[in-house]
Write a structure and sequence with these properties.
Elements: H1 20-31, H2 42-54, H3 59-84, H4 90-114
Helix pairs in contact: 1-2, 1-3, 1-4, 2-3, 3-4
Length: about 130
């Protein structure tokens, strides 16, 4: 028996080519939001800068940049409410929970975007359409 390479049957659709640059920039939209743990409002400025620079070049970046911005703006509003609620002590627990939640879903979004999948954040208010 000869070793004949297997070829897909005629008419089988081939998957679209993977655009690694697009996926990387989409992932960076989410990754840059982690700057908010170091720089005040860095969680909004990071995704905003990448989205503004690359949105016209890559459709996935346009989508994921808006998604990251909407989520980070939403989280900032949630942080403000939790900070006010520190006065009745429940805010401390809320701030810790929000921080952990934000970190976990941002990491999930980074992985999905790097795979080329459009990720939708939970608890996200869609300010930018």
């Amino acid at each position: 028996m000869e070793n004949v390479p297997m070829t897909p049957p005629t008419g089988t659709p081939t998957p679209p080519p993977v655009n690694r640059d697009q996926n990387t920039w989409a992932m960076l939209c989410h990754l840059s939001a982690l700057a908010g743990f170091v720089i005040p409002l860095g969680n909004i400025l990071g995704p905003l800068v990448i989205w503004l620079i690359k949105k016209d070049e890559y459709p996935l970046v346009a989508d994921q940049g808006k998604e990251a911005l909407n989520f980070q703006i939403s989280m900032t509003l949630y942080y403000i409410v939790a900070a006010i609620l520190i006065l009745i002590l429940i805010g401390i627990v809320l701030l810790i929970g929000l921080g952990l939640f934000s970190l976990v879903v941002t990491i999930i979004a980074m992985v999905k975007a790097n795979e080329g999948v459009a990720y939708r954040y939970p608890m996200c208010i869609r300010f930018i359409k």
